[in-house]
Design brief:
Layout: H1 7-10, H2 13-25, H3 27-33, H4 38-46, H5 65-78, H6 80-95, H7 101-108, E1 116-129, E2 132-142, E3 150-157, E4 167-173, E5 178-180, E6 194-204, E7 208-210, H8 211-216, H9 235-264, H10 281-314, H11 320-346, H12 358-369, H13 377-389
Parallel strand pairs: 1-3
Antiparallel strand pairs: 1-2, 2-6, 3-4, 4-7, 5-6
Length: about 400
């Protein structure tokens, strides 16, 4: 077993294995379409992987966050974009457990297999109105928007609003927003992370939660669940770890591809009969270092999962020190994977530059994924450094 596997997560391995051939078969089509292939989305739903973190009371699997990380890591090896959409939407399905029962019923009663797309960054604005809120603005990076009937988005209070918290997160139907296809990018092309635009869209009060309580595991709806401790994990700690799980899988696959290629790749400039690149000491060092970095990343994420389990069992909100540690471990795990992939690609040779080279795609996707704000190295390092040194935020 690896650091993300336990007897609990192993029970999902058959479901994961069942989707890998489908995801791999449609990986290129997903890349070209800049949106996950419908066949891949269907396979994830049929296997029950879309419901791993859907609230148990709404038809979910009752899985742990560790199970979600494990699934994201394994599926990323077959198709990074499919894993990414499963990760983002699965995280949103989990967050929905901190919304009202009425809100969840609107979504899941009709389709317990649904994915909730969206973007957590509070990029738009809201104004208070009778019975709820009016939202306007543009939200970028809405991964999986092509495949979800519901969206989860955040917004800041407009300066001229008559009331409300500083920030809200809301759930609303996708057909109430405009999708703007802006997704032309270096990597993660298949995630289809397009913009969504709202102009004065009404969201009723029962589909909105104050961001502060929602993100800290203090939502008033946490106790709606028998497994309420699962919803005590802070949102950014959970999201960053799930994201890192997907990147871990991409890095693992990059290492496998590199090893496979290097074992048979001729060392054509080192003299006749010199053999393959695998005999080169520099290549051997690249593989050793990259393998060590990826294995260390996995151990860090496994430790985060241990903490998630502890929070779930204790069923209590946690302190800033623990949050800083978890966010740092996720961010550093992604950084280690990024370094490993960078090192491997630098030694992969000229053929890895072609568009039909899988190594090129995995390289681009890891570079792109590592720019996500949830695993920002500078911010996470600052928080962890302040925590270690006992420095209070100014």
């Amino acid at each position: 077993m690896n650091a993300l596997e336990t007897t609990e997560t192993v029970r999902y391995n058959a479901a994961i294995e069942s989707v890998l051939p489908v995801l791999a078969t449609h990986r290129e089509a997903t890349e070209v379409a800049r949106s996950v292939a419908p066949e891949s989305i269907a396979a994830l739903k049929i296997a029950g992987l879309s419901r791993l973190l859907t609230p148990l009371v709404n038809g979910g699997q009752g899985a742990t966050l560790r199970a979600q990380l494990h699934a994201c890591a394994e599926t990323a090896r077959a198709c990074p974009a499919s894993s990414w959409v499963m990760m983002v939407c699965g995280a949103h399905n989990w967050i929905s457990g901190s919304f009202s029962a009425e809100c969840r019923a609107e979504m899941f009663d009709a389709d317990p297999d649904l994915f909730i797309a969206g973007t957590l960054a509070s990029q738009g604005q809201f104004k208070k109105t009778e019975g709820g809120w009016l939202l306007s603005g543009r939200w970028q990076f809405c991964s999986g928007v092509d495949h979800s009937p519901w969206l989860l988005i955040g917004a800041m209070r407009a300066k001229d609003s008559s009331g409300g918290p500083a920030s809200l997160h809301v759930i609303l139907p996708r057909d109430e927003v405009k999708v703007d296809d802006t997704w032309h990018t270096l990597g993660m092309r298949g995630s289809g992370s397009k913009d969504v635009v709202l102009k004065g869209v009404f969201v009723p009060a029962h589909r909105a939660e104050a961001t502060g309580k929602l993100f800290s595991g203090r939502s008033p709806h946490v106790n709606d669940h028998d497994n309420s401790g699962l919803y005590r994990v802070p949102v950014l700690c959970s999201l960053s770890a799930q994201l890192a799980g997907a990147v871990l899988g991409m890095a693992r696959e990059m290492l496998s591809l590199f090893i496979e290629k290097t074992r048979v790749r001729p060392d054509i400039y080192s003299g006749e009969g010199s053999g393959t690149k695998a005999r080169s000491g520099t290549m051997q060092r690249r593989v050793a270092e990259a393998s060590g970095e990826i294995n260390t990343a996995e151990l860090l994420l496994g430790r985060n999962c241990d903490i998630f389990d502890e929070i779930t069992e204790a069923n209590e909100p946690i302190d800033d020190e623990a949050m800083a540690l978890m966010r740092w471990q996720s961010a550093y795990a992604v950084e280690l994977c990024r370094r490993a992939v960078e090192r491997l690609y630098a030694g992969a040779g000229a053929h890895a530059a072609y568009n039909d080279s899988p190594m090129q795609q995995y390289y681009r996707d890891v570079m792109m994924a590592s720019h996500h704000a949830a695993i920002d190295m500078d911010g996470a390092a600052e928080l962890q450094g302040m925590s270690i040194l006992g420095v209070e935020a100014v």
